[in-house]
Amino acid sequence: MSNIFTPVIHPRIDLRRKEKPVKVADLMRGGNTPITRFNTWLAVKVTSGVGTMWCAYAFAALALVSLPAAITSGNPVVLVSWISQTFLQLVLLSIIIVGQNVLATASDKRAEATYEDADAVLHTALQIQDHLAAQDAEIEKIMSRLKAT
Predict the structure, then answer these.
(1) Is the pLDDT assigned to residue 67 strictly greater than 90?
(2) Residue 27's pLDDT is what?
(3) What is the dihedral of CA 107, 111, 113, 115, to 10 degrees?
(4) Is the N or the C terminus of the chain less surrounded, counting Cβ atoms within 10 Å?
């Protein structure tokens, strides 16, 4: 009776033991060429610097330097241009990067939790297989006793 099912271990199980979940930071480290690695390194450094609220405050202060000139010009186009091209672009750029960093961190935590959940489910499924195999062995013993009588 124990020959009715033979579990086949999926190859992904061995890979899961060797791999951890992919995180945003992992994707930023790779690169095949020195230029690609340099570009990635530079992009991460600039993003890390610009993507802070302190940088957003500094950009806001920098933008405010030209506000009096925009107001005294009396031209509404100049004022709208200052708001959209100077203030919003400078300040919102940093704030958006900060938000993206927060979202990436949350995404990494969700990926880690999903990985751990999948690992727990896999472990439980393997225990179920062992349990079923033990039950098969006991049923086999019962069947052989019944046949003997």
Answers:
(1) yes
(2) 66
(3) 180
(4) C
pLDDT tier at 1, thresholds 50, 70, 90: very low
Give the chain as a 3 state SS string: CHHHCCCCCCHHHHHHHHCCCCCHHHHHHCCCCHHHHHHHHHHHHHHHHHCCHHHHHHHHHHHHHCHHHHHHCCCHHHHHHHHHHHHHHHHHHHHHHHHHHHHHHHHHHHHHHHHHHHHHHHHHHHHHHHHHHHHHHHHHHHHHHHHHC
pLDDT at 2 over 60: no
Q: Which residues of 129-143 are buried (b: 16+ CB within 10 A; e: fewer)?
A: eeeeeeeeeeeeeee
Q: Is the pTM of this model over 0.85?
A: no
Q: What percent of the chain has pLDDT over 70?
A: 90
For the chain, the structural domain boundaries read: 9-148
How far apart are alpha carbons 126 and 31 in whole angstroms? 37
